[in-house]
């Protein structure tokens, strides 16, 4: 689980783990928690979630955590700054137009299954969809990888 500092990553982790709001201090380093949903389509699956600190000095470590991951949960503070997605490498012949990129993001980033999940870590609203959705996205990604 990645995101800039103060986005709410640890609050989400501990809301999921303890089923109630736990006030968090900024994460220095990382937290690691295992989850095993007891219902829904992800029932019985084990999810190991690494909550990596979002401070600028820790961001170079993100790559290390993502390397062996099956999925990335990127948390943004939806009350914070606007998010801009840069469609880079426009000089290459296979580059997509901004309209095509916008459509791809709406459908999933490139060939990567993507889902935007609105939630509230304080109340837990929307978090019950996290593991079922992540399970589906991981299965889709693995299926696509086998076809290649």
How would you sum up this structure, described in words?
By secondary structure, the protein is of the alpha+beta class. It has one domain (9-79, 113-147): Rossmann fold (3-Layer(aba) Sandwich), CATH 3.40.50.300. It is built from 4 helices and 2 strands; from the N terminus they run H-E-E-H-H-H. It has a two-stranded antiparallel sheet. The chain is globular. It starts with 8 loop residues before the first helix and ends with a helix.
Shape: globular
CATH superfamily: P-loop containing nucleotide triphosphate hydrolases
Quickly give the CATH architecture.
Answer: 3-Layer(aba) Sandwich
Major sheet: arrangement of strands? 1-2
**Percentage of residues in DSSP E strands:** 5-15%
**How many strand units?**
2
Binding site for GTP: 3-10, 54, 88-91
Keywords: GTP-binding, Magnesium, Metal-binding, Nucleotide-binding
Binding site for Mg(2+): 10, 27
GO molecular function: GTP binding; GTPase activity; metal ion binding
Give me the secondary-structure topology:
Elements: H1 9-18, E1 30-35, E2 47-52, H2 62-66, H3 98-107, H4 130-147
Antiparallel strand pairs: 1-2
Protein name: ADP-ribosylation factor-like protein 4C
GO molecular function, one term: GTPase activity
Pfam family, one: Arf
Index terms:
148 residues, alpha+beta, Rossmann fold, two-stranded antiparallel sheet, 8% strand
């Amino acid at each position: 689980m990645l995101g800039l500092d103060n986005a709410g990553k640890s609050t989400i982790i501990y809301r999921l783990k303890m089923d109630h709001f736990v006030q968090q201090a900024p994460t220095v380093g990382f937290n690691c928690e295992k989850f095993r949903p007891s219902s829904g389509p992800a029932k019985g699956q084990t999810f190991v979630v690494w909550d990596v600190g979002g401070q600028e000095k820790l961001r170079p470590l993100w790559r290390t955590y993502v390397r062996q991951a099956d999925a990335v949960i990127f948390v943004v503070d939806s009350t914070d700054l606007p998010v801009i997605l840069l469609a880079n490498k426009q000089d290459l012949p296979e580059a997509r137009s901004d309209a095509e990129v916008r459509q791809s993001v709406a459908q999933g980033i490139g060939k990567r299954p993507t889902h935007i999940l609105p939630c509230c870590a304080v109340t837990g609203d929307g978090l019950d969809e996290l593991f079922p959705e992540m399970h589906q996205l991981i299965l889709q990604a693995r299926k696509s990888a086998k076809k290649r």
